[in-house]
Amino acid sequence: MCKRAIYPGSFDPVTYGHIDLIKRALEIFPELIVAVAHNPQKKPLFSVKERIGMLKRATSDIKGVMVDDFNGLVVDYGHKKKINVIIRGLRMLSDFEYEFQMALTNRKLSPDIETIFLMPQESYSYLSSKLLKEAASLGADLSAFVPDFVGKALKKKLSEAK
Ligand code: ADP
Fold first, then answer.
1. Which residues surround ligand 1 with Cβ inside 6 Å?
2. Residue 91 designated active-site
3. 141: CB partners within 8 A, 6+ apart
4. What is the C-alpha to C-alpha distance for residues 19 and 62, in angstroms, rounded to an integer?
5. Residue from 59, 116, 58, 60 nearest 87 by CA
6. Nearest 5 degrees, angle CA 101-CA 49-CA 152?
7. Which of ligand 1's atoms lies nearest the C-alpha of 95?
8. By the 8 A CB rule, do 85 and 114 touch?
9. Protein residue closest via CA to atom 24 of ligand 1
10. CA-based, 20 to 30 A from 64: which of 29, 83, 86, 95?
11. Tens-of-pLDDT digits for all 162 residues of the chain?
């Protein structure tokens, strides 16, 4: 049995939804690598270094988490790390089509790697980094969605971007 899994994503920035999923994954696997994708085509708000820094801080009290980054295909990263399980989250039906396509594409590329989907606590099932950024730009209170330091970093970044 694989003792480690990879949780890849943009994490732009990390939210309580991601953290909920990390904790659930660690109920199944003793070790989890949270892998930040470089994906410049998604035009992330935060740099990879900033996203890693926030993830490390947000997960500092969770045992078994490692934070890393990767370029290119997640299946190649899995091979490099000798890990054959990818964790992804399913929030709403709207996630399904994209996640389904991606999981099957990854399976085609690399049949030895399995994708496992986890569902967050209901209260996080509508939470996304994208909506969070919109809410932050409109001055919303973010305390229910992200740790305080992430909310501050987000507001600072958005004000710099103006
Ligand atoms: P990506 O650009 O790879 O979709 P995200 O950081 O948006 O990166 O999401 C990474 C993974 O975490 C995806 O599988 C996504 O469905 C999941 N995820 C994001 N937000 C939540 C949430 N609130 N609850 C559960 N899963 C989530």
1. 9-11, 15, 17-18, 21, 88-89, 91, 95, 120, 124, 127-129
2. yes
3. none
4. 9
5. 116
6. 95
7. 16
8. yes
9. 17
10. 95
11. 569 999 999 999 999 999 999 999 999 999 999 999 998 888 999 999 999 999 999 999 999 999 999 999 999 999 999 999 999 999 988 889 999 999 999 999 999 999 999 999 999 998 999 899 999 999 999 999 999 999 999 999 988 877
pTM over 0.85: yes
Q: Which two tokens stand for residue 98?
A: 């994209």
To the query of whether residue 108 is one of the catalytic residues in this protein, the response is no
- The pair of structure tokens assigned to 69 is 């980054």
Could you confirm whether 110 is annotated as catalytic?
Answer: no
**159 Cα: distance to centroid of ligand 1 (angstroms):** 25
Atom number in ligand 1 closest to CA 127? 23
For 77, other C-beta atoms within 10 Å of its C-beta total: 20
